[in-house]
Amino acid sequence: MHAVRVKTRLAALLSCACLLVTACGSAKAGTAVPNGEDAAAYVSAKFAKTLKSLSDQFGGIEDRKSVLDTFARFDDKKINSTVTAVQLGRPPARLAKNHSNRDSNEYLDTYHPANSPVEYMLLGPVYASLAPTHWVSMPYTAGDLSECFWAGAQEVCKMLGAVSDSIDQGRAAKSANSKADGSLELIADVTLGAFIDNRVVVFPNSILSQITAEMKAQALRTRIELDPKGRLTEIEMTGTISGGGHEVEIKEHYRLDGTASQNDLPKVPDPADVTVLPDSAAVSDFYARMGEIQNR
Questions:
Q1: How far is the CA of 206 from the CAs of 118, 202, 209, 211, in angstroms?
Q2: Could you give the CA distance from residue 95 to residue 76 in angstroms, rounded to a whole number?
Q3: Alpha-carbon distances, residue 115 vs 139, 272, 287 (angstroms)
Q4: Residue 258: exposure state from Cβ atoms within 10 A (0-12, 13-18, ≥19)
Q5: For residue 30, what are the CA distances in angstroms to 37, 223, 230, 273?
Q6: What is the pLDDT of residues 98-123, one digit of tens each?
Q7: What pLDDT is stored for residue 9 in this prediction?
């Protein structure tokens, strides 16, 4: 149910983005749409109206390259990683490279060649104990799922879900500004609670138990960039929130990164360098052992 909910919200928000661009097409470039104190009410009303009426379909068939930087800190505990992703072709081939910015040996690259019955994962040295080869393969089971299930798009769906929740909770979208090239910048407040509930970053229970209701009610500044055709090109959430003797710092930044090409994709791994995980039991065991490494 959660996955369907995220997909529905993403479709609504992207459609809403197109609606905003259409409504603002005649505005003077570089100015708020509309100007002054009416901006927040205008933008919030557009979100509220659109979220009630639009389709829950979102098809992931567009070629793209993207970068997602994640920095999250609770007191002195930190997450700092970058996901670079490529989606190319119809049906798409997909590559997502998840690398830690704190330890160059900690990375996991996931690759699904177009139409392949399996997907591959390249294990960084931190995860070398999981298999005797550099790569593992596992059955590909996401063929009928939306783009929101892909590692290169999950966090975007979650971020837009957090925006949707905050609008539903009465937090105002603060401004919409057109630019000289016809693109649009939307600024909104997103509560820390909505950020956590949508699992944009997954905090362990030991941290969640220390984040107070007052902290969850505070807001992260969220900036959404749309190109002249209404396509989402960038979304960023930032803020530092204090309470109960603790501090949470968030810097989450997704952006498109040029044009995808075949050169961005790896070759299919040599079978001699691939450990096959043949079924769901083997895959579950693999991820359980991975979790033990990540929780050390």
A1: 36, 12, 6, 10
A2: 32
A3: 12, 21, 24
A4: exposed
A5: 16, 15, 16, 54
A6: 999 999 999 999 999 999 999 999 99
A7: 44
At residue 3, the pLDDT reads 39
- The residue to which tokens 């009630």 are assigned: 52
* Residue bearing the bigger pLDDT, 20 or 169: 169
Whether residue 260 contacts residue 88, with contact meaning beta carbons closer than 8 Å, is answered with yes
Closest CA to 80 of 107, 46, 117, 115: 107
Q: Is 202 exposed, middle or buried (CB count within 10 Å of its CB: 0-12, 13-18, 19+)?
A: exposed
Q: What is the DSSP letter of 54?
A: S
Structure tokens at 286: 């693999």
Neighbours of 168 (CB within 10 A): 13
Task: Compute CA distances 229 → 24, 25, 166, 224, whole Å.
Answer: 12, 10, 25, 14
How far apart CA 284 and CA 296 sit, in angstroms, is 19
Six token digits for residue 259: 């044009």
Q: How many other C-beta atoms can be found within 10 angstroms of the C-beta atom of residue 139?
A: 14
d(CA 11, CA 13) in angstroms, rounded, equals 6
